[in-house]
Amino acid sequence: MTSPTPPSPVRFVDVRQGGEAFLAEMREKLSPRGDLVSPRGRELTQAVFGKPLTPVEVVETICRDVQNEGTAALLRYTAALDRAELTPEALRVPAADLAEAHASADPEFLQSIRNIRDNIVEFQSAILHQDVTIEPKPGVRLTQRYVPMRRVGICVPGGAAAYPSTVLMTAVPAQIAGVDEIAIVAPPTPFGAYNADMLATCHELGVTEVYRCGGAQAVAAMAYGCDVLPAVDKIVGPGNLFVALAKKHVFGTVDIDSFAGPSEVIVIADETATPAFVAADLLAQAEHSPGSAILITWDEALIESVQQELSKQLEQLDRSDLTRDALADFGALILVRDAQHACELTDSFAPEHLQIETSDPEGQIAQIRNSGAAFLGHHTPVALGDYAAGPSHVLPTGGTCRWAAGLSANSFLRSGSITQFNAQATQAIAGDVIRLAEKEGLTAHANSVSIRSNS
């Protein structure tokens, strides 16, 4: 006799005639407010700082100390927060360790790394900005040029799992852009800077700077620089709440990619969707834990089928308990009026990942402005983009894709204009410039033009 299927852990919400309060609650949960901390994180904060600081206060303290004390503070917080006692000389992973990890790596794993790298190179090269020059009038030459950043830093997570995919999705776009120096930081853990697969991936890509540090202290070290880890111009890559808050804190000293929160997906599906596929796609994001997974559909029968599949597939997952908790906290099965209502609702959420499993995915995506990355059709799971398709998986979350974009090779370019006029062209435009400058009371501006006209 088989045991009964356990109840679905995810909420069902009918918003056909309302539901605004629930939607507001979900948006608030997913917004970048900086308060999503595990019980262990709160205990660690109390132990290290002696009082229950907020995450923002923790990050401000760490960043200030690293800025003022440099390597000493970086090592102190690495010991206190990551339980790793390191010397300054041990912070950087030796080249021999990178080479050894590569030499001992599974050949099939390395071939997959090469295959994925090639996919990323092909896509990122195709979208790379190129200099544009126009000559709108005789004697006038205007150029918009793109210059790669000199040095960038990459955060690679390593708390609960190893992420060689993040190395690929950040370092390769930077290389395509032409960045001279790439520094990777990863926590000193078996999933981080001591993970052989991650180190082998770095070596395969030609990344030679890898540091055994993570969290807010690593972000601060990259932003302000220290004697072991020189400062960078931009910091990219995912991380926990403290990494995200630290990136936000140092923005202005350096550039950052985005302020990223928990991973999230909205799946829009209709009666043509396969319930097992939809459930698998929701679970794939929820297993990040925290990870938000929301189904939006106008087919009521699909919701019941997906609920059954969620319960069934959950039992087969390695991280089933964590995934179940994420579904309970950040999941929902939402019933809407129709396809148009689904698109409107999705646009208001502005999800990091959008997966459309309907009979007309192209029609639906045309109605949606706000999504970090969209995946169309019944056979395009988000995992393809997470690992291999070509676009980067580093994306804005928490509704920020209303104004933020995902990472790409263009994220590592700085644009600037070049203007060149000859004497005759300056004479031709002088009257307009002088007139506006004088209206604004900036007579030195006007004189810098008129003095050339009168010479």
Automatic annotation (TrEMBL):
<keyword id="KW-0560">Oxidoreductase</keyword>
<feature type="binding site">
    <location>
        <position position="445"/>
    </location>
    <ligand>
        <name>Zn(2+)</name>
    </ligand>
</feature>
<comment type="pathway">
    <text>Amino-acid biosynthesis; L-histidine biosynthesis; L-histidine from 5-phospho-alpha-D-ribose 1-diphosphate: step 9/9.</text>
</comment>
<feature type="active site" description="Proton acceptor">
    <location>
        <position position="352"/>
    </location>
</feature>
<feature type="binding site">
    <location>
        <position position="386"/>
    </location>
    <ligand>
        <name>substrate</name>
    </ligand>
</feature>
<feature type="binding site">
    <location>
        <position position="263"/>
    </location>
    <ligand>
        <name>substrate</name>
    </ligand>
</feature>
<feature type="binding site">
    <location>
        <position position="445"/>
    </location>
    <ligand>
        <name>substrate</name>
    </ligand>
</feature>
<keyword id="KW-0028">Amino-acid biosynthesis</keyword>
<dbReference type="InterPro" id="IPR012131">
    <property type="entry name" value="Hstdl_DH"/>
</dbReference>
<keyword id="KW-0368">Histidine biosynthesis</keyword>
<dbReference type="InterPro" id="IPR022695">
    <property type="entry name" value="Histidinol_DH_monofunct"/>
</dbReference>
<dbReference type="Pfam" id="PF00815">
    <property type="entry name" value="Histidinol_dh"/>
</dbReference>
<feature type="binding site">
    <location>
        <position position="288"/>
    </location>
    <ligand>
        <name>Zn(2+)</name>
    </ligand>
</feature>
<feature type="binding site">
    <location>
        <position position="353"/>
    </location>
    <ligand>
        <name>substrate</name>
    </ligand>
</feature>
<feature type="binding site">
    <location>
        <position position="440"/>
    </location>
    <ligand>
        <name>substrate</name>
    </ligand>
</feature>
<keyword id="KW-0479">Metal-binding</keyword>
<feature type="active site" description="Proton acceptor">
    <location>
        <position position="353"/>
    </location>
</feature>
<feature type="binding site">
    <location>
        <position position="285"/>
    </location>
    <ligand>
        <name>substrate</name>
    </ligand>
</feature>
<dbReference type="InterPro" id="IPR016161">
    <property type="entry name" value="Ald_DH/histidinol_DH"/>
</dbReference>
<dbReference type="InterPro" id="IPR001692">
    <property type="entry name" value="Histidinol_DH_CS"/>
</dbReference>
<comment type="similarity">
    <text>Belongs to the histidinol dehydrogenase family.</text>
</comment>
<feature type="binding site">
    <location>
        <position position="288"/>
    </location>
    <ligand>
        <name>substrate</name>
    </ligand>
</feature>
<comment type="function">
    <text>Catalyzes the sequential NAD-dependent oxidations of L-histidinol to L-histidinaldehyde and then to L-histidine.</text>
</comment>
<feature type="binding site">
    <location>
        <position position="285"/>
    </location>
    <ligand>
        <name>Zn(2+)</name>
    </ligand>
</feature>
<protein>
    <recommendedName>
        <fullName>Histidinol dehydrogenase</fullName>
        <ecNumber>1.1.1.23</ecNumber>
    </recommendedName>
</protein>
<keyword id="KW-0520">NAD</keyword>
<feature type="binding site">
    <location>
        <position position="386"/>
    </location>
    <ligand>
        <name>Zn(2+)</name>
    </ligand>
</feature>
<keyword id="KW-0862">Zinc</keyword>
